[in-house]
Amino acid sequence: MDSTETKAATAQNETAPRMVTLRNKIGYAVGDMGNNFLFDMGQLYLLNYFTDQVGLPSAAAGTVFLVAKIWDAFADMAVGTWIDNRTNITKRGKFRPFLLWAAIPLALLLIANFSTPNFSVTGKLIWAYIAYMLFGTCYSISNVPFGSMIPTMTRNSQERSELASWRQAGSNMGLMIATIGFMPIVEALPNQKIGYSIAVVIFAIVGVLAQWYSYANIKENYSAPKKEKVSKAELKKSFKALLRNKPLITLSFVNLFTFSAFNLKLTVQVYYCKYILKDMTAESWLGFFSIGMVFVSVLLAPILTKRFDKKYVYMMGCAIWAIADILGFFFASNTFLLVFFTSIAYLGDGFTSALNWALVSDCVEYGEWQSGIRTEGMVYSFFTYFRKLSQAIAGFLPGIVLAWVGYVPGATQTATALMGIRGLMFIYSAVLSIATIILMYWAYSLTEKKYSKIVTDLLKRRGSEQIAEPVIEESN
């Protein structure tokens, strides 16, 4: 793990020119903060809005997430394929324009999800399905290009880790503000259903402004070559190459584990605070301290990856997460202990979150090295396909479990229902963290030493790298 070979490989990976400025890094972080203002409302509060405000049965509400997220997963793949094969690339870049144009439609669709009309239960369910599926499709059009952009911003491995950390910092800032600020706005209004809608409007407006700021302050330094329209045979070849990318397959599965655990915890903590602790202020304390701890891991990740292989830093984070959640299951009986154990768990999760985007960028190079086909959009969308499946699980499973254990909205819960909430909060994530450690250890082979060899081989194949000319945009 701390071998001379690993250090040498890491040093060689850092010889690629550093292209990203502090302004670019801040812009990239703010972009993901905006993404989270627009996206996290659904993960944090939509299930509770459906069950406690709209009056949907918990199992039916959970099924909305399952169906919509499976739809989103295929939408991601379609969007990634479309982006990879675009032929009308302008001076704005291959990926940046999507940040500009998708922001407002995404915000309007988010508001629609929290503005369910007073229909019958069937009508409300139809509204929920349509609104959430359209939102997910629009989010794919915005987010797949955003995540695919790192390989065009820099070829430097360490700089990619730094960008991934900045992105995660922005994501966590968005999540922290959403967790701290959303429910106080809702509870400040006499009608909570209206409160949800007003709070969502505020976060949607700020999210749009953040995405536009990101668009104005990031840059694609490496030109994306214009492609001719590809045939179905070439598309089929690209998909086959994608399925042979073993590091990408492994990374996608461990994200299915870790991201479903993370999102399920976010969904369930509202119920935990309300029914087990009977203290809704705990939700804001969780947002400040537990999400704040992720910033610590985001700051530590680039330091640790200079000394240790990213794979082992990733596994270390999962070990911290699993231990904290096991202890939390037994001892988190008050607000202080819940915040303490959840903060330690999120410290561990932060290492996995910070490194995901650097690892998936490495998988882009691996795929090109293995097959001769470079498909940033398809690689990223394949990766996010599994993240969307994890979100489907995180939305669906709580609804099903809550129905199974006899959860009744707004009522005093039975001991069985309380145990179901506690198990969802802690045991699910602990088990999947341990599974991630096992899978990464045995199946993820793309070490820093191997990545260094891949980069060297690719540079020989490509010849000299062409840096994009400074972008000069026409005024609108």
Automatic annotation (TrEMBL):
A GO MF label: symporter activity
Protein name: Major facilitator superfamily (MFS) profile domain-containing protein
Domain Major facilitator superfamily (MFS) profile as annotated: residue spans: 20-448
Entry's transmembrane regions: 98-114, 126-148, 169-188, 194-213, 248-272, 284-305, 385-405, 425-444
Protein's organism: Secundilactobacillus paracollinoides
Principal localisation: membrane
InterPro entries: MFS_2, MFS_dom, MFS_trans_sf, Na/Gal_symport, Na/Gal_symport_CS
Keyword Transport among UniProt keywords: yes
Pfam families reported in the protein's UniProt record: MFS_2 (PF13347)
